[in-house]
From TrEMBL:
PROSITE patterns (alphabetical): G_CP
Transmembrane segments: none
Superkingdom field: Bacteria
InterPro entries: G_CP_dom, GTP-bd, GTP-bd_ribosome_bgen_YqeH, Mito_lipid_metab_GTPase, NOA1/YqeH-like_C, P-loop_NTPase
Gene responsible for this protein: yqeH
Database matches in PANTHER family: GENETIC INTERACTOR OF PROHIBITINS 3, MITOCHONDRIAL
Record's protein name: Ribosome biogenesis GTPase YqeH
Domain spans labelled CP-type G: 65-228
């Protein structure tokens, strides 16, 4: 692979891929006449920039891990950006193995989605505990919101504190807000025209993009990794906006007796199988309707109304999703837990009496129990 720096005709200044003029259907294609443009961008970036077309070229896990393993040999600061709404789904759990002794700064984006009353100190401690449980050692954890432009000054301070004269690698899954962060770093650290950096769409950075800094080091933007266990990766584009919240979550509290079920549109279902009457708080995008029913009627309701009353997804999009699979959990007495569905949200178990619950969700979507976030 030829690793020329941007500015030569070798790489696209939008996504960093090696340019080629032969095969229009393959990534990196640019028409010969477009090579005279300055900066040179591939046809895909050109379309995204000019027609807001989102193209979904991303890297799979193996390619991504190969890219990551190069970081271990370098002297660098690694910024790992995760999505607070889908924390366990967007966390790169093997990161520590690959980055070696390089310091990791954890940037936790989308804090704007948590309800206003949130105790941020507690959230930070929760993140620290979860990161540690995943084996990640962090030099700092910064809570931020790309959307509200909050926490970035704090993040830049932390970068200054831990970077020295090293390169900065930015890593993260798709849809976590990486481009916004990169653009902010560029604005603060280099005199480049920031149009060059990345397109405005998820999953559009194809290879490492080197952005030179004023002191001779670089910011290296890595491609977004696609994690198949996140709900956001398996729904159709039009349902993506239904599941990904863009404003603070309004918690929905349900008092349930055992033998009751909640449907989250046609996306997942939560069964309260046994336990004392207790309350459950749902943290999901408020665009998704929640239907309560009796557990004994749940299968029938789904069979008759999936894709209509129980939507999104619509009937036709349902066919593209994997079949549902069931996850059973016993919540211990006296514990404070969330039942987490990656990319869709979580259900907080408020009672301390213990409970037996089950979640039905498409096969492959990560469903788990975790200590309560809020």
């Amino acid at each position: 692979m030829n690793h020329m720096h941007d500015g030569t005709k070798g790489r696209c200044s939008g996504c960093g891929i090696l340019l080629q003029t032969e095969q229009p259907e393959l990534p990196g294609y640019t028409p010969i006449k477009a090579l005279d443009r300055d900066p040179v961008i591939c046809q895909r970036c050109f379309r995204i920039k000019n027609y807001s077309e989102a193209s979904s070229v991303t890297v799979d896990q193996d390619e991504f891990l190969a890219l990551l393993s190069k970081i271990g040999d370098k002297d660098a600061l690694v910024i790992h950006i995760v999505d607070l709404f889908d924390f366990e789904g967007s966390m790169i759990s093997a990161l520590q193995r690959f980055v070696g002794n390089n310091p990791v700064l954890l940037a936790v984006n989308k804090t704007d989605l948590l309800p206003k009353v949130t105790n941020w100190n507690k959230v930070r401690n929760w993140v620290q505990m979860q990161a540690k449980a995943q084996g990640l050692k962090t030099v700092d954890i910064v809570l931020c919101s790309a959307k509200q432009n909050q926490g970035f000054d704090r993040l830049l301070e932390s970068v200054n504190e831990h970077r020295g004269d090293r390169d900065v690698y930015v890593v993260g899954a798709t849809n976590v807000g990486k481009s916004t962060l990169i653009n902010r770093l560029i604005r603060d650290y280099s005199d480049l025209d920031q149009e060059l950096t990345t397109s405005r769409y998820p999953g559009t950075t194809l290879d490492m993009v080197h952005i030179p800094l004023d002191d001779g080091a670089s910011i290296i933007d890595t491609p977004g990794i696609v994690y198949p266990w996140r709900y956001s990766e398996i729904v159709s584009r039009k349902d993506l906006s239904a599941i990904m919240p863009d404003k603070p979550l309004k918690p929905a509290v349900y008092q349930l007796n055992s033998g009751q079920t909640l449907f989250f549109g046609g996306l997942a279902r939560f069964d309260f199988i046994e336990g004392e009457r207790q309350s459950f708080t749902c943290y999901i995008n408020n665009a998704i309707k929640i239907h309560r029913t009796k557990l004994e009627r749940a299968d029938e309701l789904y069979k008759d109304h999936a894709g209509e009353l129980l939507s999104p997804p619509s009937r036709e999009d349902m066919e593209d999703l994997p079949e549902w699979t069931r996850h059973d959990f016993r919540i211990k007495k006296g514990s404070r837990n969330d039942v987490f569905i990656s990319g869709l949200g979580w259900i907080k178990v408020n009672g301390q009496e213990g409970a037996l619950v089950a979640v039905h969700a498409p096969r492959g979507v990560r469903v788990m129990i975790r200590p309560s976030l809020i």
